[in-house]
Structure prediction request, 706 residues.
Amino acid sequence: MSTNQNYIELFREKEKILEKASPSFMKEIRQDAMDHFSKTGIPGRKSELYKHTSLQKIFEPNYSIQLQPSKVDFKVEDIFTCDVPNLKTRLEIILNGFYLGKKPSLSRLDNGIIIGSLSEALRQYPDLVKEYLTKHAGTRSDGLVSLNTAFALDGLFIYVPKGQVMDDAVQVVHLAMTGLDTLLHYRNLFIMEDNASAKVIVCDHTLSPFRFLTNSVTEIYAGPGARLNYSRVQNEHLNSNLLTNLFIHQEKDSQVISNTITLHSGTVRNNTHVLLNAEDCDSQVYGLSLADRSQHIDNYVNIDHAKPNCTSTQLFKGILDEQSTGVFNGRILVRPDAQKTIAYQTNNNILMSDEAKMNTKPQLEIYADDVQCSHGATTGQLDENALFYMQSRGIPRKEARLLMLYAFAHEVIDKIEVAPLKNRINGLVDKRLRGELSRCNNCSMACRDTPLPI
Amino acid sequence: MLLIKELKVNVAGKEILYGINLEVKAGEVHAIMGPNGSGKSTLAAALAGRDTIDVIHGSVKYMGEDLLEMDPEERAKKGIFLGFQYPVEIPGVSMVNFMKTAVNEHRIFQGKEPLSAGDFLKYMRERKELVEFDSQLTNRSVNEGFSGGEKKKNEIFQMALIEPKLAILDETDSGLDIDALRVVANGVNALKNKDNATIVITHYQRLLDYIVPDFVHVLFQGRIVKSSGRELALELEEKGYDWIRAEANGQV
Prediction:
């Protein structure tokens, strides 16, 4: 409780700063979120949804909270270079939760696409932002979302108007780099109007050897006929805790494909909420987790089939080594109205050590009678017969294991639509499985990737 | 090439082979026959290095070296090839990637340059023709969705790529129709030369019409109870295994 109390007091203390940073209508929204937080607090282990991930422990250390942009006297490009080859992207950097770099911080392109800082968008296009911000995440869902709503000041904003296609993928790199243990919030809002189309890649990285807790919210609105391909790469150091809350709202005939590759981090919890709010929507949610040492990766997916004739596919795979732990919890809700729903869910895991653990739970709630739903979960070890078969052809056991793990992971990587990114992820996963990728790649800081004492 | 002396092995604590003696020289073809459960596959797996098999007694020398001390992959690289009775499906691992890795492991071991992707594909095409292997199958995952006959042909195809010194074919004929049997046998014969040797493990003499053995051994209850020329195979075909059983029990 004391932790919750701290944040309530912190909010009171920082109210003026928060007020000054955003338009006045945000005041009420923040207050509403905080009121809700003071009732619920950070979800505890008693909550069924957080049974296997102790948020209390993550929130325990004494973090300083980041409420203004960091002053940087160097070029971020010097420290961080994204080396996805041939990836023609529009690169946007969010440092410690605040938009960095480009001037102006918000651009309006010729075809009406608006992209850049959310805080700037709140100032320049308050009516547009107001219509969508918090409308999909709500201010009263879980404590993490409330906390984000109360404290998040910036993030990335993308608006693609009716019928427009964003040719190049947008790459949003969230960097954490401070000189002390820090709690970070960022908020992304992507609005895709009717028949708009875009590809977005989101990367999470840490660049300094301190303890980080990132509590993020991303809201996506996909209007009728909109197409969005959303890929995430999570690659942070062992002392980072990453909490992501993704809300996807889909309208008629829209398609949103999301793909989350968790390569490295301390504790990761990804909440993905999809609302299929009209007929003929397609939702595809994919995830791949690679964990070792004391890492903990928890994926929660909730697909709400509210209307008929929609399809959803969930495919999550995990490879867990050493003492790492994983959780998958996939809920499919088919409302009484949602006839002709097709919903699939698969979760496959490989445990590489005796100590690694996986908890997996499908949760299907079906209130319509004419639906096609399936779920399947497996957790096991590599097939010894297959390993011996490869060895008997001269392939060393270690290499045989890699070939099999790689094949296992490939099914998820294959779903990434941006080809250069797919190749890059293939390379990173290969490195990760070989144990050559022990912390944020591309980082020139020689931070020790060892757990800090609590 | 291969010298097995007094080999005794256990599987899951149960003694399966009770003292095998066998010598195989370069250029020879040996057939090992015997009824079900006599230990034929166990012998093959022991030679390939399967770790579920415990060698409790005896020695196996291969090219003058202690075979039992080697890992399965080392045995393979030194020239031993096991054709599996039940080839394993490996979902997601492509045939091309699998065999390219295997062939290049062999090449590196022999001090040769690994083949580039292009050179490997060329080499693969040549070998496919030699053993009449369907070219579409190499685009798939290892053995995944292959028919029984395709799996067995795939074993011979892999053998053709690897060019082993000592091939041990474990019931490669089981489940094959007559055409597939001919393809498999032709492949084995095409790969035969004076420097390599083959051990054919089979239940039926049918395969031996195509692959002519120099020696036939009968394995029964974990022992080789009879060794002779190829005429022994014909005798077994005619009389079955009962007389072997009777003779063996008489000896005990």
